[in-house]
Design a protein that fits this description.
Distance between the termini: 79 Å
Number of helices: 6
Radius of gyration: 30 Å
Largest sheet: 4 strands, antiparallel
Structural class: mainly beta
Length: 444
């Protein structure tokens, strides 16, 4: 009997000791210190780097431990600095923020490395190109113009230009000499092409395999065609962007009723304050002129002052960058001034916004300040460049997170575009006699 009681006592002693050793539990929520988003599948390891457990895809780690097993431990996840923690001495829930590791190599997409020549000619250089509804348009020239008017000193002017149309199989469909000096190409909201000249614009049509150019007045093009970049649900989408003003509106135009409505406004608040402050430094005569303009037009005198003083010519002035893209069933506005990705449905009703990350932190140092829209695939890419190397990263339309890094093969590629899952660019190897050639590489 005594032995039985002793055995029962030892049993309960061991059981209670075990319960005492296993009574603690912690729930760890792991967040990204920059974006505030959960970090999935984080590993909990000992100081000797021995694996203990892993979190789920919501950034949660649940771990049971005894009082003498509180650590220290390390939280480990690829792309982040390791974080040392000591577990609490009671049942608890804690939040830990991991700092992204800017020195760690980003993941990249494995794909064929050899770029494919799209337009390569023994006598003509590829100057400008744009993907359109009819195919791929290329402006080609034989000799560059070395002299130009002082008023156009910073603008590339092409003469003796040939407009070439390539189909999806990269075959030349048609070509047409352009009767004047050119500065570039423009693709309208329906995918139609326009050739931009120094004193006029040509609309481009394809009829029975032949290219036809029709002259459009420059003012008419700038006012009625260029502002509208896309369309949805019976509306044209565009903006009243002005490179000399620190703000603009994204607009929707209904052709039937001819009603124009604003659905998203963009403004650089700090730059606008500087713009308006120019009124204080004007002469008395100019202030009177600005006040008269306010009475005549209803536009604030300080806004007139900013234009009258030529504030946009100052070195520190930079117009806001907030391009609009229609991706599948969503209208996306990438407002870099506010640092937000703003989303709208097809009725142009706001459905949410997210913090932009591609232009800040480590990626921001290499960000070129340019986004590319692949209309065919409904994707948006950020363009990065460093030491002559260029790479692309897709941007998630919901979270604004960056996708894998996609390196382009050529060094110093020019005029990068993305269309149909392909990256297009113009390149000529250094110290080569090869004409400037248009290439493409797969990105999807």
């Amino acid at each position: 009997m005594r032995n039985a009681r002793r055995g029962l006592f030892l049993f309960w002693a061991v059981l209670l000791a075990g319960l005492a050793q296993a009574q603690l539990m912690v729930q760890i929520t792991v967040l990204d210190s920059v974006s505030g988003e959960p970090v999935p599948v984080v590993e909990l390891r000992t100081r000797n780097d021995e694996w203990v457990t892993s979190g789920n895809y919501d950034g949660l780690i649940v771990h049971r431990y005894s009082a003498d097993e509180r650590g220290p431990y390390f939280l480990k996840r690829s792309g982040y600095f390791r974080k040392e923690i000591t577990l609490p001495d009671r049942i608890d829930a804690i939040t830990v923020r991991l700092v992204p590791n800017p020195t760690e190599l980003e993941p990249f997409t494995v794909r064929p490395r050899a770029p494919v020549p799209v337009f390569k000619n023994d006598t003509l250089h590829a100057a400008v190109f744009e993907p359109g509804a009819e195919g791929l348009w290329v402006l080609a020239y034989e000799h560059p113009r070395m002299w130009r008017d002082q008023s156009r000193a910073g603008q590339e002017i092409l003469r003796d230009v040939v407009l070439v149309l390539l189909d999806t199989m990269l075959n030349e469909v048609a070509r047409k000499p352009v009767p004047g000096e050119c500065t570039g190409l423009h693709i309208g909201r329906r995918g139609e092409a326009y050739v931009l000249g120094t004193d006029r614009v040509w609309g481009v049509d394809v009829e029975e395999g032949a290219v036809r150019l029709s002259t459009i007045l420059t003012n008419a093009f700038e006012e009625a065609l260029r502002p509208w970049t896309d369309s949805t649900a019976g509306h044209w989408l565009g903006s009243n962007y002005d490179a000399t003003f620190p703000g603009f509106d994204h607009l929707a135009y209904e052709p039937v009723s001819e009603i124009v409505s604003v659905f998203c406004s963009v403004q650089d608040t700090f730059m606008m304050q500087l713009f308006r402050s120019q009124y204080k430094y004007m002469s008395g005569r100019d202030k009177v002129i600005a006040m008269d303009m306010e009475l005549t037009t209803g536009i604030d005198r300080e806004l007139w002052a900013g234009r009258m003083t030529g504030f946009h010519n100052d070195l520190y002035f930079e117009p806001p960058y907030a391009p609009l893209f229609v991706c599948r069933d969503t209208i996306l506005v990438f407002d870099h001034t506010a640092g937000r990705l703003k989303r709208f449905n097809r009725k142009r009703e706001p459905i949410g916004e997210t913090k932009l990350v591609h232009h800040t932190g480590q990626p921001g140092r290499a960000f070129t300040g340019k986004l590319l829209h692949d209309r065919a695939m409904g994707e948006v890419y950020a363009v990065f460049e460093q030491a002559g190397r260029t790479w692309l990263c897709s941007i998630d339309p919901i979270s604004a997170a960056l996708g894998p890094r996609i390196n382009l093969d050529a060094k110093w590629p020019e005029q990068v575009r993305v269309h149909g899952g392909q990256a297009y660019y113009i390149h000529r190897p250094f110290e080569s006699t090869q004409k400037r050639t248009l290439y493409r590489e797969r990105v999807k």
